[in-house]
# Entry
Amino acid sequence: MGLAIAHQLARLGRAVTVLSRRRSEAAGFVAAGMLAPHAEGLSGPMLALGQASLERIPAWVARIEADSGLPCGLRPCGIVVPFSSAAERDAYPTAAWGVPLDRTGLERELPGLGTPWRHGLLFAQDGQIDNRRRLMRALERACVALGVRFEEGSQVLELLTGDGGRLRGVRLRRAEGGEHTIAATTAVLACGAWSGQLLPSLPVRPVKGQMLSLQGPRASLKRVLFGPGTYLVPREDGLLVVGATSEPEASFDDGLTPEGQKQLQQGLVALLPEAALWPPMERWWGFRPGTPDGAPLLGPGPIEGVWLATGHYRNGVLLAAITAELIAEAITAAEQRSGASPELLAPFRWDRPQPATPAAHTPPGARASP
# Structure
């Protein structure tokens, strides 16, 4: 998210500095890269935001590739969501945007699919991007090419305010030690799961996720398979990404767990039994920025001059394109004192009412495994 916004602002001619404590912590290096507003079963403003971003992604990727000279791994491969019954399929929040499938159709789209799945929805408009291996590297190079400065190993300790409570700078600790202050009147907080550590008033908490990958035959799976609690994302070279656990109770606990890995294995076997025999490649974990209502915090923050781009939970890669565009537009409008603010931002104010009981950290359309 931070790289996408830095890139967009730099393209508008702004001088940008990216402060990063440790780049490997970024959710962009962990996520599976699904572009799935329909397969996720989103609804309301979240669906509108996701659809707007999905429409922009091809042009957004083209700009990144032009600025970086590197491929981003965009694949409009479509996503299939399987169900055990037609009634369950037809009740899915985004069923109107999908093509209904029976068992024959499922087998055509996903040879080897587990036998409990009798019906499905094909969302041909959804897809994926290889964020871990390609997009993040391309974004970094595109930013450098446009003059963005990077301060890796710099931990922001405090946002400093002046008279009237407006941002005047940040206090940070650099990798070589010692505390320093950087003057700034405009900043974007894109700290993901750690956002609440800088601004405790933000309702953001970590939701740990574990994942793994397997090496399958090339073209063994042509669609993303989005099952309940487990998804399978096939890359062009046959790598199969399997995700992901959802562990809000884990907080920032590092490491893999036997329980999490067993959950992924069971989900894999239920969806694509033959893949359980493919050789494992990697296992990893990361932390999503969750909010009580499951939607991001976008736009002006509690400190004047600080803009928010956090709380994207499961949809950070999908929403990067629209978030970068909207935040850059809002910053420009504020500095020109036009008073305009992109309409799509309105439902995602940081201080909107939140549910007393946090939303379950599962896809809105999630359902029980058969």
Observations:
- The chain has a mean pLDDT of 94.
